From TrEMBL:
GO biological process, one term: B cell differentiation
Organism: Misgurnus anguillicaudatus (Oriental weatherloach)
GO MF annotations, alphabetized: double-stranded DNA endonuclease activity; histone binding; protein homodimerization activity; sequence-specific DNA binding; ubiquitin protein ligase activity; zinc ion binding
Domain V(D)J recombination-activating protein 1 RNase H, residue spans: 80-174
Cited InterPro entries: RAG1, RAG1_pre-RNase_H, RAG1_RNase_H
The protein, known as: Recombination activating protein 1
Cited PANTHER family: V(D)J RECOMBINATION-ACTIVATING PROTEIN 1, VDJ RECOMBINATION ACTIVATING PROTEIN 1 RAG1
Annotated ranges, domain V(D)J recombination-activating protein 1 pre-RNase H: 4-76
GO cellular component: DNA recombinase complex; endodeoxyribonuclease complex; nucleus
């Protein structure tokens, strides 16, 4: 989906047309003797967030209609509250098929859009136009990064999630 950040995100590619990327993109060596290209796959955070918002378009429009507003009301931007989670998926050694050897544990980093609110022109308070009714449901959870790593391996998790954190920080400094 076409979108643009103002100002442009720092240290993040200007290309929005990004699919699944190597979770350790830029690394040339292995982590703990596991080939880096087998260890993680992820979406760029802002691309995943925009995709999730696009999926919620009908719910957002319904929220506006319920409050007697239309999409032209939202001229000063909107606020999206996100809940992140990172959880171990247990032993996957029997589940990955006949591909390359991988560590036996997997971890998923994901997010859920909890609420969306707008501040109408000349209004003091923000108005919530979307609220996730089932925030702990698998249906509202958006996977961002899947990693073949033990959740107790903090060094590898830090290496993989470092760029995700950098993208989140860049989004907070833009609109």
């Amino acid at each position: 989906h076409l979108f643009e950040w103002q100002p442009a995100l720092k240290n993040v590619s200007s290309s929005w047309d990004v699919g699944i990327i190597d979770g350790l993109s830029g690394w040339t060596s292995s982590v703990d003797d596991v080939p880096a290209d087998t260890i993680a796959r992820r979406f760029r955070y802002d691309v995943a967030l925009v995709s999730a918002l696009k999926d919620l378009e009908e719910d957002i429009m319904e929220g506006l209609r319920e409050r007697g507003m239309d999409d032209s009301t939202c001229t000063s931007g909107f606020t999206v509250v996100v809940k992140e989670s990172c959880d171990g998926m247990g032993d996957v050694s029997e589940k990955h098929g006949s591909g390359p050897a991988v560590p036996e544990k997997a971890v998923r980093f994901s997010f859920t859009i909890m609420s969306i609110s707008i501040r109408a022109e000349g209004e003091e308070d923000a108005i919530t136009i979307f609220q996730e009714q089932k925030p702990n449901s698998e249906l509202s959870c958006r996977p961002l990064c899947l990693m073949f790593v033990d959740e107790s391996d903090h060094e590898t998790l830090t290496a993989i999630l470092g760029p995700v954190v950098a993208e989140r920080k860049a989004m907070l400094e833009s609109r």
